[in-house]
Specification:
Pathway: Amino-acid biosynthesis; L-histidine biosynthesis; L-histidine from 5-phospho-alpha-D-ribose 1-diphosphate: step 8/9
Catalytic activity: L-histidinol phosphate + H2O = L-histidinol + phosphate
Structural class: alpha/beta
InterPro entries: Histidinol_P_phosphatase_HisJ (IPR010140), PHP_dom (IPR004013), Pol/histidinol_Pase-like (IPR016195)
CATH topology: TIM Barrel
Helix content: 25-40%
Number of helices: 11
Shape: globular
Keywords: Amino-acid biosynthesis, Histidine biosynthesis, Hydrolase
Number of domains: 1
Radius of gyration: 20 Å
EC number: 3.1.3.15
Number of strands: 11
Strand content: 5-15%
Order of helices and strands: EHEHHEHEEEHHEHEHEHEHEH
Largest sheet: 7 strands, parallel
Length: 385
């Protein structure tokens, strides 16, 4: 089995104390994963964007950048170590991926990431190649709202976290006009606009927790159409479809992220309305646990399995290193007009590429629900810690 999204305390201040990439991979090995992605948060640009725990430990943007660079060194070391172990027939996750989870907090974020964090010297900065040679893939995530001006609201000095805690989320709602459903829809629309810019400018291989904007209000519908929908609801629905169509058109994987289940949701991210739209548009789905410590590895995966079976998902996708990639990359440079034609079609994901410029390829697996992994996971859960 696989996960494309993980963090550890060695490089993430809000992860479980004592955790590290090595400890995460040891747990993934124990559970029988064939693919595990390390995906630390990219650093943030400004002091105003630091989280409370980062301020308490004396972090600065410069220190976060140094920590990020140390993460890249350690992640590559673990990738090489596990590759060697697997080739030597030792028990180890054979496909370790080095990734990054993105942000888009304010108008300067993406340009700064491209110039300072994910820049590859000498590389043409095509969207799909940003970070090539630095990371294997990107998890395209947004965690803030309010950092961009909108027709109804000016921009804040710093984006407001929408997944930190309920009180901070309510502060974000207040920025959009109060605690009403309309304010939440305005927040969701701003979130989706920031997500669209990120998808367009970075072309992440994995789309992270698509509907994080409703973590604390899961009852809000993001795809309400027809006569019952007002103009704001229609605008939010159209933004969802727009974002899904763009990502599906270049072959992105939408993560089924089980972290929401440990936070009180009945399903993983994204909820059923969004997942139905992803499937309708031919989008590909993958698994993620969004682990912040070893006890989170594969957490709530039984719920993810049940959810995907209920939604009749036949093919589950994951990334793997593209070892046979043509170094000239001639075969990877699809004409943009072809992608745009898919994006405008009824099923944008149909016929999308499976190879990515950063160096991975997507592999689809049918019969995933009968994988021996699930029985092993159940047995280990029964054994307890």
């Amino acid at each position: 089995m696989h996960s494309h999204h993980s963090h550890s305390a060695a490089f993430c201040s809000h992860a479980h104390p004592g955790s590290s990439p090595q400890i995460m991979l040891e747990r993934a090995t124990e559970l029988g994963f064939h693919t595990y992605g390390l995906s630390e948060h990219v650093p943030r640009q400004f002091e105003s964007e630091l989280y409370p725990e980062e301020r308490e430990e004396g972090s600065t943007p410069a220190k976060l950048l140094a920590k990020w660079q140390a993460y890249l060194v350690e992640a590559r070391r673990m990738q090489n170590e596990y590759r060697t172990k697997a080739k030597g027939k030792e028990r180890a996750v054979p496909n370790v991926l080095v990734g990054a989870e993105t942000e888009n907090l304010c108008p300067s974020t993406l340009a700064w990431l491209k110039a300072e964090v994910l820049r590859t010297p000498g590389e043409e900065q095509r969207a799909a190649a940003v970070g090539k040679g630095v990371v294997d893939y990107l998890v395209g995530s947004v965690h803030h709202a309010g950092g961009f001006a909108s027709p109804c609201r000016p921009a804040r000095d710093a984006g407001i976290p929408i997944d930190f805690d309920a009180a901070t989320f309510n502060d974000a709602l207040d920025h959009f006009g109060g605690q009403s459903e309309e304010a939440h829809l305005q927040l969701c629309l701003a979130y989706l606009d920031a997500q669209y810019s990120l998808i367009n400018e970075l072309r992440p291989e994995v789309i992270g927790h698509f509907d994080l904007c409703r973590l604390f209000r899961p009852q809000t519908e993001l795809l309400k159409m027809g006569a019952a929908a007002n103009s704001l609801q229609l605008e939010v629905s159209q933004a969802c479809t727009r974002n899904i169509s763009l990502a599906a058109s270049y072959g992105a994987l939408f993560e089924i992220n089980s972290a929401s289940c440990r936070k009180g949701w009945a399903t993983p991210y994204p909820a059923a309305d969004v997942l139905r739209e992803i499937l309708r548009l031919g989008g590909r789905v993958c698994l993620s646990d969004d682990a912040h410590g070893p006890t989170h590895v594969a957490i709530s995966y039984d719920q993810s399995r049940r959810y995907l079976m209920e939604m009749r998902v036949e093919t589950l996708w994951h990334l793997e290193l593209d070892e046979e990639r043509n170094q000239e990359e001639a075969g990877l440079l699809e004409d943009e007009s072809m992608r745009r034609a898919r994006e405008a079609s009824e099923k944008p994901g149909e016929g999308a590429p499976v190879r990515f410029l950063r160096g991975t390829r997507a592999k689809g697996v049918t019969g995933w629900a009968d994988d021996p992994f699930w029985a092993r996971l159940s047995a280990l859960r029964e054994q307890g810690p």
